[in-house]
Amino acid sequence: MIKLHQLADSSVNFVVRAWTAKERYWDVYWDLTRAVKLRFDQEGITIPFPQRELHVNVGKGGGGSVTVGDTQRKT
Predict the structure, then answer these.
(1) Which residue spans within 1-70 are E strands per DSSP?
(2) For 34-59, how does the pLDDT look when each residue is reduced to its tens digit (9 = 90+)?
(3) Dist CA 19 CA 25 (whole Å)
(4) Which of 34, 37, 50, 68 makes a 20 to 30 Å CA pair with 60?
C-alpha cells in the first residue's frame, strides 16, 4: 500500500506498507528501501533537503540587518 502522507515544506511524504512474514520483516524492509532509492535514481528523482537563504546587509556605521527566510533582524 502506498499513500500520500504529507505535503511538507521541502518534500512530498509517502507512507509505504508491505505485508510479509514476521521473520522476513527486516529483509523486506531493507530490500524495498533499496529498490525505491535505485528506481528514483534511474528516473532522475532527487531527494530534497531543507535550504535557508541568508542575506546580510551591513550599513556604514557597522549596523545592518540579517534576513533569514522571511524574518529580518537588526544587528
Answers:
(1) 2-7, 12-16, 54-58, 64-68
(2) 999 999 999 999 887 777 777 777 76
(3) 8
(4) 68
